[in-house]
Design goal:
One of its GO terms (biological process) is anatomical structure morphogenesis. It is a single-pass type I membrane protein. The chain is mainly β. It has helices at 45-48, 88-92; strands at 2-6, 11-16, 19-33, 41-44, 62-64, 71-74, 79-82, 99-106, 111-120, 133-139, 147-150, 163-168, 174-179, 187-192, 203-212, 225-233, 246-252, 260-263, 276-281, 287-291, 296-300, 311-320, 327-337. The chain folds into three domains: 29-120, Sandwich (Immunoglobulin-like); 128-233, Sandwich (Immunoglobulin-like); 246-337, Immunoglobulin-like (Sandwich), CATH 2.60.40.60. It starts with a strand and ends in a 28-residue tail after the last strand.
Length: 365
């Protein structure tokens, strides 16, 4: 407890009925910290008012006014004591100055004294955020240096116990810039330092902590932690890709029309409209393309004939839905395998040969 300076005071004489009141202007100032325990000493009121302790009880020494619920005076000692719990924030909100006016009365002669009790703040409130967290949607194309404003915390305490700064959990992409315009206007912004890549990290979870000026600061309560969840929005920065540049297939020329041959799908690291949306097959005489949600297939539209064409090369293109559109290609090389679909044929209908009549067995002409 801390007692302020006691100044000389002017005394005014008031006439009321047959009594003469002397009114002392409020020049006695005491200080007490909020949340002080009942019974704690505020100050020696009798001594500071220059009253004889021995006569306090008989002269009806007491305090009065609307703030007596917080204080009481011991008439045997003249000591002013804390009577009830004092909550500075409830009394004065976030006003820098917080004090209570109290009156003391003593009879024979009747005197009225006024004095002031300053309520000092303690660090009994932790900073808190009004909402537990936010979700920020950030495009992966954001440039380093871009700023993202974060919500402010609130602290019911004032002065040295109010919010003095913010801390951001360690990460490789963002730093924290705190603008200090005084405790009422302190704000925090995240500043992008390293380019984002949704394909590597689609969600970044960070924690913002508000720090007050207490020693130690009240910054361990979960209410002081603000969850920042960054959802990295996709941009069309990846092209569709096939696992191989060349797909080789062996198909017998006896394959029936309508037969289907599976092709491995292309992959696109992007999502949504920026992912693979459709396929195109180079125009040819034998195959068309069938695509559904689960597979890509070549469909034999016209039968193959190895004797006419032993090999085919087809170009398959995968396209995404981004703007501008990206694509990826693969070459499908088809080797047509022979089938026993032709009987032996002589090159001419009649062959003639002449042999001497005396030719020996096994003679070849």
């Amino acid at each position: 407890m801390q007692q302020g300076n006691i100044f000389r005071h002017w005394v005014y004489f008031l006439f009321h009925g047959s009594h003469i009141w002397s009114l002392a202007a409020a020049q006695i100032v005491y200080s007490v910290t909020e949340e002080s325990s009942p019974g704690n000493t505020v100050g020696n009121l009798a001594k500071d008012l220059h009253l004889d302790v021995q006569g306090l009880e008989t002269r009806g020494f007491q305090i009065s006014g609307p703030n007596t619920r917080y204080f009481e005076v011991d008439v045997k000692t003249g000591i002013l004591l804390v009577k009830d719990r004092i909550d500075r924030e409830a009394l004065c909100s976030r006003n820098v100055k917080c004090s209570l006016e109290v009156e003391a009365i003593v009879n024979s002669p009747l005197n009225l004294y006024r004095f002031e009790v300053k309520i000092l703040d303690i660090n009994d409130n932790a900073p808190s955020f009004r909402i537990p967290g936010i979700v920020l949607n950030v495009y992966e194309s954001a440039f380093p240096g871009e700023r993202f404003t974060l919500p402010n915390a609130f602290d019911a305490d004032v002065g040295s116990y109010s919010i003095k700064g913010y801390k951001l959990s360690q990460n490789e992409h963002f730093t924290l810039d705190v603008q200090n315009g005084g405790e009422a206007t302190m704000s925090a912004e995240m500043v992008l330092q390293k380019a984002l890549d949704r394909e590597k990290q689609p969600v970044i979870k960070l924690t913002l902590t508000a720090v007050d000026g207490g020693k130690p600061p009240k910054s361990e309560n979960p209410l002081e932690l603000h969850r920042v969840s960054l959802h990295i929005q996709d941009v069309n920065d990846n092209s569709p890709k096939f696992k191989k540049h060349l797909i080789e297939m062996d198909i017998r020329e006896s394959a029936d029309k309508g037969n289907r041959f599976s092709i491995e799908e292309a992959h696109d690291a992007d999502i949504g409209q920026n992912a693979v949306q459709r396929y195109n097959l180079q125009k040819n005489d034998n195959f068309i393309l069938a695509v559904d949600s689960n597979k890509v297939e070549l469909v034999l539209e016209n039968k193959l004939d190895r004797e006419k064409q032993k090999e085919l090369s087809l170009l398959l293109t995968a396209l995404d839905g981004g703007s501008p559109q990206r694509s990826g290609t693969v070459v499908i090389h088809v080797t047509v395998l022979d089938a026993n679909d032709n009987a032996p044929v002589f090159s001419q209908a009649v062959y003639k040969a002449s042999l001497p009549e005396n030719s020996a067995p096994d003679t070849i002409e």
